[in-house]
User: Which sequence fits this backbone?
């Protein structure tokens, strides 16, 4: 459902059906609301600097001009940079109107996304185009000529046909004056305008578009409309439904959380359809693999039977001493590797060495001690031999080494100095080398079953 909301009227569209609503109703179905407050001040302003400050600069400009007085919410609908400046298309809404709308949106039990009518006006306008939004006695014109933005608005004396046509001509005159400095620029020859009515009559909209075009000097056509009949029996033609369906959630007035939920709801139906489509080939693939698995199981049963027969025949084979020796050697290697992997958590040891060494000590190597080199008759995890080098500041060697040992002991390791293995290979640096055997006080890991 799409709702067009003003202070005078709330009009809902459900397909081609137009429904009159009471202001701020309780919704029983998801809705997109296009809000056009009567007290909103709109315009285009140009500034230098960062566009992130556009809202604050617009508010200061409007207050200095006396166009706003009380608390106001500034909404920036479009920013176009131009050389070292930028233009901002804005709307200034009284804070009490803004808070009332968002409080009503938050109370709804169904998805409700709200857009400003100026956001529809901005998004409907191409880079070299113009759009007019007509709502009752109010008419607003917005154009983009490359990075140049222009805005104008008028209010008719009444809703009578002659007053509306006079207002359309006045708006066209203002548009012509606003576009006059840009007439010689690129793209102006292709400038076209689109007339969008919020809730008008098809015949009236055509006449108003022609009156605007005559005064502005540019072509103007009526946008796609939805036709319906209001509760009073009045025929209505509106461009709001088609414009609202083209909006993106990024331009809505809701908090970010509501935008995310709205996107999820929009993606839910396509995602469910896609899941059904994807499941069909997956089901076929699953059936294929089931048949293939049964064939493999039959083949595996044949291989097991053949292996059993070979095992029964193996007793007649004479053992090979050379092959047995190689197998024993490989088995010993596997047992040693399994013992080390079970009892020594090398990544944890390396992290402890890194934290204990800091910037003053450089670790040259760390290796697990071979089982035959471990303590005599001792049981428990193998030790790790660590080779390191001290910093060049000879006076600080004792403090550096003592701090290193304290950190290792604090981490739960027993530390024992040993002869350095690297001293002969580092030349003049041999005086800075040291070696320690570190052993976890308790097994680093529990034995795996």
Assistant:
């Amino acid at each position: 459902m799409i709702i067009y909301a003003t202070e005078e009227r709330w009009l809902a569209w459900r397909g081609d059906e137009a429904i009159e609503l009471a202001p701020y109703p309780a919704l029983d179905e998801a809705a997109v609301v296009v809000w056009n407050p009567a007290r909103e001040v709109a315009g285009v302003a140009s500034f230098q600097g960062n566009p992130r400050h556009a809202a604050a600069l617009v508010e200061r400009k409007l207050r200095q001009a006396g166009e706003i007085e009380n608390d106001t919410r500034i909404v920036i609908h479009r920013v176009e940079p131009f050389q070292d400046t930028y233009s901002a298309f804005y709307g200034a809404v009284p804070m009490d109107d803004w808070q009332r709308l968002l409080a009503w949106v938050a109370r709804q039990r169904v998805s409700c996304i709200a857009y400003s009518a100026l956001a529809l006006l901005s998004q409907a306008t191409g880079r070299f185009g113009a759009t007019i939004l007509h709502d009752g006695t109010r008419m607003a014109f917005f154009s983009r000529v490359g990075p140049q933005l222009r805005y104008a608005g008028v209010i008719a004396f009444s809703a009578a046909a002659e007053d509306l046509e006079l207002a359309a001509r006045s708006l066209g005159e203002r548009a012509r004056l606003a576009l006059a400095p840009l007439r010689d620029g690129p793209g102006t020859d292709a400038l076209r305008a689109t007339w969008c009515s919020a809730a008008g009559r098809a015949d009236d909209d055509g006449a108003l578009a022609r009156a605007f075009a005559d005064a502005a000097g540019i072509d103007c056509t009526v946008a796609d409309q939805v036709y319906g009949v209001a509760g009073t029996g009045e025929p209505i033609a509106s461009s709001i439904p088609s414009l609202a369906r083209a909006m993106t959630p990024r331009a809505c007035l809701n908090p970010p959380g509501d935008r995310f939920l709205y996107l999820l709801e929009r993606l839910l139906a396509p995602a469910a359809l896609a899941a059904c489509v994807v499941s069909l080939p997956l089901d076929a693939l699953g059936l294929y693999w089931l048949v293939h698995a049964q064939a493999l199981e039959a083949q595996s049963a044949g291989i097991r039977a053949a292996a059993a027969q070979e095992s029964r025949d193996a007793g007649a084979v004479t053992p090979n001493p050379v092959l047995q020796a190689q197998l024993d050697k490989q088995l010993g290697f596997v047992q040693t590797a399994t013992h080390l992997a079970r009892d020594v958590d090398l990544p944890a040891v390396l992290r402890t060495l890194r934290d204990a060494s800091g910037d003053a000590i450089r670790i040259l190597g760390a290796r697990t001690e071979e089982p035959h080199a471990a303590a005599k008759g001792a049981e428990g995890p193998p030790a790790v031999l660590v080779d390191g080098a001290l910093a060049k500041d000879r006076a600080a060697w004792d403090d550096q080494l003592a701090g290193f040992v304290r950190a290792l002991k604090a981490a739960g390791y027993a530390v024992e100095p040993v002869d350095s293995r690297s001293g002969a290979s580092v030349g003049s640096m041999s005086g800075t080398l040291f070696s320690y055997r570190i052993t976890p006080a308790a097994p680093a890991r529990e034995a795996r079953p």
Remarks:
- The mean pLDDT is 82.
- The first strand starts at residue 2 and ends at 5.
